[in-house]
Specification:
GMP Synthetase, Chain A, domain 3, 2 domains, three-stranded mixed sheet, 9 helices, elongated
Length: 189
């Protein structure tokens, strides 16, 4: 987009009657420089506007938005997925409905099961961990309080480790001990 193009500036300058229409005049040469500067400024404004909105931003803009809203882990995702995660965080922000939180989490971490309970001013969320890494679990604990409205207290429980799940691995305690598994490792096995 042309911001204050040379022809427009020239027309305005010449309409004052103070300058001659000579291509090599100092006034018109200076005006060309101004027009080039306005064009560069206009291009930068267009770029800033494009990169400021998740729907039109490209990689650098999406990374900026991710950092601004402290979304953490999404840098490794494709641009379209980043857009979805950012949009979901904005839709869910300030909302404490189970559906909005489920939408946000499914957009960010994929499949999971969740139960929500509401008591007085506390929202209790239990996420049934089915293979989420400890990194995602910590991310969820950090990001959900930003989505829940400020007047509510949040209680997050990650429930994924069960004896049945451990038994399904057919490992003895000695085998797990020999592999130096931590509880976090066992949870994501």
């Amino acid at each position: 987009m042309a911001y204050l193009p040379f022809e427009y500036l020239k027309e305005k300058l010449l309409s004052t009657g103070l300058y001659e229409d000579k291509e090599d005049s100092a006034a018109l040469l200076e005006l060309r420089c101004y027009a080039a500067g306005f064009q560069a400024l206009g291009d930068e404004i267009e770029n800033v506007l494009q990169e400021s909105f998740a729907q039109t931003a490209e990689s650098a803009g999406l990374d900026y938005i991710e950092n601004k809203y402290d979304l953490g882990f999404i840098s490794d995702n494709q641009d379209e997925r980043k857009r979805g995660i950012i949009a979901a965080s904005k839709i869910a922000a300030g909302s404490f409905t189970q559906r909005s939180i489920e939408t946000f989490l499914s957009e960010t971490v994929g499949e999971f099961e969740m139960d929500a309970s509401y008591a007085n001013s506390t929202v209790g969320i239990t996420i049934k961990n089915r293979g989420l890494s400890s990194y995602f679990i910590e991310w969820i604990k950090r990001i959900l309080p930003k989505i829940i409205t400020a007047e509510l207290e949040l209680s997050i429980t990650i429930d994924g480790l069960s004896w049945t799940k451990i038994d399904e691995k057919n490992l003895t305690w000695l085998e797990m001990d020999n592999k130096n598994y931590t509880w976090a490792d066992i949870e994501i096995m």
